[in-house]
Amino acid sequence: MSDTKDKASHHHGNLRQALIEAGIELLTEGGLDALTLRKCAARAGVSHAAPAHHFDGIDGLRVAIAQEGFVRFRHRMLDFADAGPQTPRGRLHGICKGYLAFAREEPALYDLIFSFRAHSKKITDMRESSTPSYQVLRDACAPFVPPGTDPLIIETQVWSLVHGFALLILTGRFGPGPAPEDAVLALLDRIGTPPEPDR
């Protein structure tokens, strides 16, 4: 019975995506420790051997889930940017709000996509998916890069602000009440502006 189902899934090209979706469900329900190939196969309704046809072990599955996560992450940022004022500053705020929304709505997936360490093979495997997400940030920051300034400086300022704030929210730094999102993101209005003179 399971062999027949596996063959049907292979035939329709849906098995890989079904396993990724199953992995995201497990990740959401129980965190990274709940994510195993066997559990993904069971959740997807296929034999325990089926994932081996699509992923190089559990690390391969994690990379595939992270790749899907980056696609969702990018879409969330763009959705918020497109829904707000269509000015450079408005889009910058929108992208950052979408960043925070994704972190709140899919915390386990958010944790996973930022869990891979620099210079690892997994980072290389994900570059094709993560680069478009970073490009969204880069495009939003571009209008605020002062002449003669390395764009990476402005991009890092914005990314550090929103990513650090997201982590503080997810770790419960602000307790049960709402996080001061508007007040913190107001700092974006100073990005790219010259500092005030010392008094």
Automatic annotation (TrEMBL):
Q: List each copy of the HTH tetR-type domain by range.
A: 13-73
Kindly indicate whether the keyword Transcription regulation belongs to this entry. Answer: yes
* Residue ranges the record marks as coiled coil: none
- In this entry, the residue ranges of the DNA-binding region are 36-55
The molecular function terms in GO held by this entry are:
DNA-binding transcription factor activity; transcription cis-regulatory region binding
| Top-rank taxon | Bacteria
Q: Which UniProt keywords apply?
A: DNA-binding, Transcription, Transcription regulation
Transcription: is it a keyword of this entry?
yes
The name of this protein is: Transcriptional regulator, TetR family
Q: Taxonomically, what lineage is the organism?
A: Bacteria, Pseudomonadati, Pseudomonadota, Alphaproteobacteria, Rhodobacterales
